[in-house]
Amino acid sequence: MQKQEQTVVHRGRTLAWEGFVTGPDLLSTEELEQASRRLLGTDLAGAKEAAGKELLPFGAARGQVPAIVLGTASTLKGCFEADVAQLALGRSPDDFSAYNEARAVYLAAPGDLVVGRGEPWRQAVAASAAVPVEVPELRYYYLTHALLAMAADSLADRPAPPLERLVRQLSAAPETVVRLFAIDTEARVLLLWLKRAAGLERLRVDANGPEVAERWNRKTTLYPTVEDAMGVSAPRAADAPESSLAAEAEVTAFHREFGVLLPRLPGYSVSRAGADEALLRHRVHTAARLLRERYGLELGCFKPAEALTGSRIRMAVPLADDAALDALARQAMETEEDYVLEAHTHYLRHRLPGYEFILAPSAHVVAGQPAEGGTVQITRGSVWEGSVYVDEETCARFDITPAQFRAVREGMAALHGAFQGAGRDLGFVKGGVDFAIARLGGRFGGRPVVAMQDLNLSSNGAEYVRAFLAEAREVLGTRQGVYAATKVVRPTAETDLKRLEDRVERPGHAGWARAITSVAGRWGLIGVAARCPRQAAQEVLELEQRLHRAGLLRTSVWDKSVRAS
User: Fold this and answer.
1) How are beta strands 177-180 and 67-70 bridged, if at all?
2) Above 60 in pLDDT, residue 364?
3) Among 102, 103, 110, 532, which is least packed, fewest CB within 10 Å?
4) Where do the H-state alpha helices sit in 296-433?
């Protein structure tokens, strides 16, 4: 870890910036404007317009074409703000910047260039067959900021060595694709500069087109605004609740744009933009009233539209409690984010020894197409902590019926089709959607529903279980009967990747296991493959527990009181 005596200010409080791989510096909007003008000859608005012509969303499977893996965290997800918020609460931050750079190495094929910084990244590269391009600039939290600062300080015909290496790769192999989390403002300027420096007509980018990434990659995509929902007629007593869901879906911006109905939960978007506290409070109370009156619901779930990994979610909100609703409005005012208030889900569940799954499966788009199979999520509370790969043949081992699993995949296909329909292609090349298999109560009674809950239309955690599955199939010499699970772990301050990997026990000939990433003191990822997804899940949870007992991890989700279903 970098030894630094640095601080950040959060809501007037000065906090020590300790234990991070990189520093807390950020380029301001003014500095980004200056960098754009210096590097591209245009402001940020001009760069955004140019990106639509010069950057090509391009879905390519790992190893299909040469790649540059740029594992930067993204300002679109507020990674820096999320880490600082954890510092302010006295909790251990994830260090999103360090772990994104380190774990992204695992997505590189042999010979691909991987860009990053710090010791966790170096260890990940050493354990791979990728080619490192190290950036010797640790002041900036975001890798893109570090690279832009280097580019702006370089002579026009003599870029800094890391940038020169990237330009040389693109010039020599124009078919190279750049893989990254998402194209935010900073990445847009950097990619345009690389493309022009390499003399390319267009640069292939394994990231979604701007309309997908910026307009639709939000929880609010699934829900009408409170104001629009008020224009929908109230249901009659004899109407099924699904009719109200469909009528409200028709007034969402997504349906108006694409004419596609997505399977969703009852819920409403609460917009923060331009709202004072009184208006925001009115919107929250109105959303709660509509959930009670139209669907007979008693509990809701309040979610930020763009939260990371399920953080800052308020579950089981009593919809008739004015004080609780006022508190939600104050939260939205303080964080200045859009939110959704949706039905609280009583998830169907499945138990393994030591752990209870909520049934929140996910489906994905990989390399521009709906991917095979899906995943069951491992969670800690509302926060994602891992994935188990399943398919229609094996989903019942988690108490998911084949019909429910098909409904999940059909929902994903409907979203993918919307972005490629009506004679246009919005460049949806990667992403995932989380679903709920749950009972809602109220007018839905006791029957379970299958509905979308969260859109992750960018790089996502399931990419790693799929990459690990591919590795395991290669190691075991077969694609048939091989399933995989990955688990987020919390290493101690001394547990780097070398130490973690040394303590991973290898299964017999029918399985495979490894440590994928470790940012000491912060975040890591392990994986296990087996002949059955339930077995893979059991073994990855047991591996985490053994590593925890051995003193390598700070926590474990293992609960000895949980018995198998």
Assistant:
1) parallel
2) yes
3) 110
4) 322-335, 402-420
Non-local (6+) Cβ contacts of 412 within 8 A are 363, 364, 365, 370, 433
Tokens 């699993």 found at: 405
Cβ atoms 496, 123 nearer than 8 A: yes
> In the beta sheet, which residues pair with residue 512?
529
- Give the Cα separation of 311 and 47 in Å (integer): 32
414-431, pLDDT tens digit by residue? Answer: 999 999 987 789 999 999
Query: How far is it, in rounded angstroms, from Cα 517 to Cα 60?
Result: 23
CA 344 from chain center: how many Å? 22
Other C-beta atoms lying within 10 Å of the C-beta of residue 9: 10
Instruction: Tell me the pLDDT tens digit for each residue of 383-417.
Output: 899 999 999 999 999 999 999 999 999 999 999 99
Q: Which two tokens stand for residue 182?
A: 């998402």
Length of the chain equals: 565
Task: In whole angstroms, give the CA distance from residue 415 to residue 259.
Answer: 11
User: Is residue 71 within 8 Å of residue 104, measured between CB atoms?
Assistant: yes
For 206-235, write each residue's pLDDT tens digit. Answer: 999 999 998 999 999 999 999 999 999 999
**For the chain, how far is it from start to end, CA to CA, in angstroms?**
43
Helix axes 185-197, 29-40, angle to 10 degrees: 20
Q: Give kind and range of the element (H or E) at residue 516.
A: strand 512-519
Per-residue pLDDT tens for 56-83? Answer: 999 999 999 999 999 999 998 889 998 9
